[in-house]
Design goal:
Elements lengths: L20 H8 L3 E5 L2 E4 L1 H20 L3 E2 L5 E3 H7 L1 H4 L5 E4 L5 E4 L4 H11 L8 E10 L14 E11 L2 H21 L4 E5 L10 E7 L5 E5 L6 E3 H4 L9 H9 L5 E3 H8 L3 H13 L4 E3 L6 E7 L6 E7 L21 E7 L4 E3 L17 H6 L23 E15 L1 H6 L2 E3 L5 E3 L1 E8 H11 L1 E2 L2 E2 L10 E5 L5 H16 L4 E4 L5 H11 L3 E5 L7 E6 L5 E5 L3 H5 L1
Parallel strand pairs: 3-7, 25-26, 25-27
Antiparallel strand pairs: 1-2, 4-6, 5-6, 7-8, 8-22, 9-10, 10-19, 11-12, 11-19, 13-16, 14-18, 15-16, 15-17, 19-22, 20-21, 23-24, 27-28, 28-29
Helix pairs in contact: 1-13, 2-6, 2-13, 9-10
The structure holds adenosine-5'-triphosphate and magnesium ion (3 copies).
The site of adenosine-5'-triphosphate has 15 residues, from strand 8, strand 19, strand 22 and helix 13.
EC number: 6.1.1.15
GO molecular function: aminoacyl-tRNA deacylase activity; ATP binding; catalytic activity, acting on a protein; proline-tRNA ligase activity; transferase activity
Protein name: Proline--tRNA ligase
Length: 562
Amino acid sequence: MKQSQLFMPTMKEVPTGADVVSHQLLLRAGYIRQIAAGVYSYLPLAKRVLHKVETIVREELDKVGAVELTMPAIHPAELWQETGRWDLYGPEMMRLQDRHGRDFALGPTHEEVITSLLRSEINSYKKLPLTLYQIQTKYRDERRPRFGLLRGREFIMKDAYSFHASQEDVDAMYDKMYQAYSNIFTRCGIDFRPVIADSGEMGGKDTHEFMALADVGEDTIAYSDSSDYAANIEMAAVNTNYVKSNEELRELEKVNTGSAKTIEEVSELLAISKDRLIKSLLYIVDEEPMLILVRGDHELNEIKLKHELNASTVELASSEKTHELLQVEVGNVGPINIPSTIKVYADHAVAAVVNGVCGANESEMHFKNVNIERDVATVEYGDIRMIQEGDVSPDGKGIIKFARGIEVGQVFKLGTHYSEKMGASFLDENGKSKPMIMGCYGIGISRTVSAIIEQHNDENGIVWPKDVAPYAVHVIAVNVKNDEQRELSEAVYERLKGVSIEVLYDDRKERAGVKFADSDLIGMPIRVTVGKQANEGIVEVKLRHSGETFEVHESELVEKIQ
Ligand code: ATP
Ligand code: MG
Ligand code: MG
Ligand code: MG
């Protein structure tokens, strides 16, 4: 590709409003442009990176037997009403009406669509298992779109869905996907950790998030270098196996209802640090709510978490309200509205910080009938203190550290939640009708591009890992007006193309300084500079990641850089 023909609008200045390095570099290096908050054009260089990532994803998914299809981005409301998610999804769902006033959504995810597709076509165990995926634009009206491609409102996702006749089968697919994801992110050059995430199920074995380690990440993960344990901190709060004894729980029960408590009192009550508690509250107010349950004497407690509370008090008030509350599955993952007040009603609940991410309506979030024996003790939601740095990991093999992570992917066992609600069943060997067992697996393709840049950059620009770089080699003619330099540059360009090396050739009539700065900024792994020694056929090779340079005769170039 000749650079004079490429659309690659670079800029020198750091654009205002871009707070994280990947966002800044994507803009400065001419990869993306914003059209509305969280909505971007992918310019030619970005398109090539996306394509590289997608190719890696396709190759790894093909290996595990997943098959590609494309589903619509426009979804009729009726499908989402079948699962109840038309209401539950809240304002994150982009909604529209057609000319007849019928409701539609722009798909934020595709469980409903794929389940409806499969229920009409698959009716026998003989046709299972089946794993389908697509790479497609998704729409989520995020409350706070930010950080460029990291949190967009229109973004590219790979979403896969698997359908099975037995639990063993979905378990096996889950493991394969887990491995495929590990391969994908490794090939993308990402330093990542798969972490136990919140599934609302026992032990958190049923979902993992793949976290790219980065300080700008919105998630905190708890991990240990000398053990395999790694969990999203939300999950770590409930999965540390530090289950308190019944005595301790009963002690906690005594500290109960009716009075407003200070942060200090609550932090003591919950046995977590004040800092952490405030952080949790900030998190609740700022991001997705956590559920804080306070054990009371079979009474319902209402904890109001108000905005003002960030730094001051948590109000604990007993409530007359009993069982009229909305049923919410603890741990049910769904997008939520950020309420200004979160009310938690807990029947016979325990003092605990349980990770929340629950369905919520406009102004408040309710929990009904949370029962300590059933919901806490027996499902091992038991830890009533969040894991902390310096703790021994639950497997006893290491010391816990915290790190920030960007969720680049998630794998999930869905069970029969959707297939039951939507009537997607099959006949087993004995002719008995059963709901299909499902898994789903997402990767944020566009987010992954940003995550790569977060991990691969220096003060001069992007430093692409080889397998995802837009071009492998950047050839620079220092002075195109010089015949020898221009001719050699073109010969090198043709030679590289001839052996299928992807090459970008800077043939512009620009000053050398501008060309070098742009070259560093856009970040191809190998730069080949054709300058003064062109008359001897000598070019300079510079490796972007190490800065190492060497001179080579153009006839040996291919051999030297491969
Ligand atoms: P997050 O916790 O960051 O909001 P999520 O858990 O809501 O993400 P999933 O529903 O698991 O996202 O979607 C699968 C993948 O899609 C995520 O792992 C992430 O990589 C990507 N993704 C989700 N939301 C966005 C977004 N707003 N912009 C870009 N990528 C996204
Ligand atoms: Mg989300
Ligand atoms: Mg998430
Ligand atoms: Mg997720």
